[in-house]
């Protein structure tokens, strides 16, 4: 079965879901029902007093499959705008869609399948019996604002899974169960990495000492790699005058996501959603010679975006997030070398954190929707050709994705597959010819003439919050030793062993090892269970034999048998794992 066929089956199933809901809950208003990866969904506004939960899905699915067995034919019928409005006169969300189609001058079609009719542009099976009921399952219920705007009504979204076979469905359900176990929101709480506060607000994570330690270990490694390649740290404020973003284009292209502030004197400011416009002003505060280039700036700093409440998800989608951001200001003939330096950093970093292979995507602009972008088609063509040349120089296979570019320039996106097969976009390198034009960034060349420079944007983790959501789920909380907030946990057998355990703790800390000490008045068994639950790599029970200088019996995460070694051997093993950054 090809992609088009599978899309048509899923799209048709969305219609059958809506038909089932209308039969079971008369008076329900219909919104939209598109296909998505692995299935489909439909949004509904149920009558007052009716609330749908996951417990209702069995009943709805049964009704849905019953309708499918009716072998109804899908028949498309065009309609004028006035006819469509009359047909959907009692459907407010459909009327909203018809109005939009009329404004765009697009054709309107209705599709009938048995007793059900829906506004739709098509892509269906011929008869409902072609929908593979063996691979069909209604999955979950969620809330969703109409058009994704929290100012609009809240709708009930019912998600469905649909695969070609029962085996594929079962495989996917197993993956979903594994994903639940790895959910970063669950593990973040269990491992005490981050929390949220009603007083602080949604989408604004608070990082605990352990979570902050994990962030810093990773960020320090990124900085180490950058420093070796000539980067310098800079620091910028978290707000800016409106003027900066008007010049950069963010006020026009990014306005809906800006947090805007008006001072008591009436001045307009914005919380920064990204750092590049600020960094241009550091470059531009003095005259630059070609001998000064490249200028490489790096900074890990918090940015802010006005994300809608319904789109927030743990720490993977937040309103405040930290970027390990860097910008290179260079001449055109230096772009390739600088890109390859960043590419090296990405390769080294992702192997160290357990992603051994990254796929490469060239994210390009959409020439059919050029109003989304800054600059001219000629500038974009030049930038995109440069990226293709660099990818070929690197000798990697890559795919091109039209419409995925940033509004100011094309980019190389790096895609990682996690341990259960899900693909994530992680690092990115962007070539920017537009912002140097808008901010008049230049250097004096060998002939004493003004020469326009270019910018390279480089994020290794990108949003550290989002990266950590991927990292936590990839490892299921079993972090590589070099990244673990607590690498070794000491468990004194009794109160009389605490003092010596504290000496071990101090000794290991002085050796650069991150150590925990459980002094609770509990049994050793309870302490071990807690340490195992916290997924600490190494656990050592401190009793008479360990204090007397005998070999230690070390519990190693994921192993049944303990390892026997001397204190010094153990200390060196942990230090070497940290130094070598073994994933």
Automatic annotation (TrEMBL):
Coiled coil: none
GO terms for biological process, alphabetical: threonyl-tRNA aminoacylation
Superkingdom field: Bacteria
SUPFAM superfamilies (alphabetical): Class II aaRS ABD-related, Class II aaRS and biotin synthetases, ThrRS/AlaRS common domain
Main location: cytoplasm
GO molecular function: ATP binding; metal ion binding; threonine-tRNA ligase activity; tRNA binding
Protein family per UniProt: Belongs to the class-II aminoacyl-tRNA synthetase family.
Keyword Metal-binding: yes
Keywords from the named record: Aminoacyl-tRNA synthetase, ATP-binding, Cytoplasm, Ligase, Metal-binding, Nucleotide-binding, Protein biosynthesis, RNA-binding, tRNA-binding, Zinc
This protein's encoding gene: thrS
Residue ranges constituting the Aminoacyl-transfer RNA synthetases class-II family profile domain according to the UniProt record: 170-480
Intracellular or extracellular location(s): Cytoplasm
Matching NCBIfam families: thrS
HAMAP family: Thr_tRNA_synth
Quaternary structure, from the entry: Homodimer.
Pfam family of the protein (one): tRNA_SAD
Record text on cofactor binding: Binds 1 zinc ion per subunit.
EC number per UniProt: 6.1.1.3
Binding site for Zn(2+): 276, 327, 457
Required co-factors: Zn(2+)
Protein name per its UniProtKB record: Threonine--tRNA ligase
An example Gene Ontology CC term for this record: cytoplasm
